[in-house]
Amino acid sequence: MKIINLTLNLLKILSIFSLLILLFSCQETINNSEKTQSQSIGPTNGALLIGGGGITDEMWQVFYDFADGKSAKLVIIPTAFDENSINYDPEFKILKRQFTARGFDDILFMHTRDTLVADSDEFVQPLKTATAVWLTGGRQWRTADAYLDTKTHLELKNVLKRGGIIGGHSAGASIQGSYLARGGRDLNGNYKIISNSEVGFGFVTNTAFDQHHLDRNRQYDMFDLLKIRPELLGVGIDEDTGILVQGNEFQVIGNRYVSIYDNTFWSPYFNEIDTLETGKNKFYILKNGDKYNLKERRVQRNKFLEPKDIASNEQKEYLGTYLFEKSKVFWNNIVIENDTLKFQIVRRNSVRDPIPIYTYEKDIFFDTDAELWFHFKRDSLGKIIGFVKKTHKFIHGLNQRFNKIAESHTADKELR
Question: Would the keyword Electron transport turn up in this protein's UniProt record (predicted)?
Answer without folding.
Answer: no
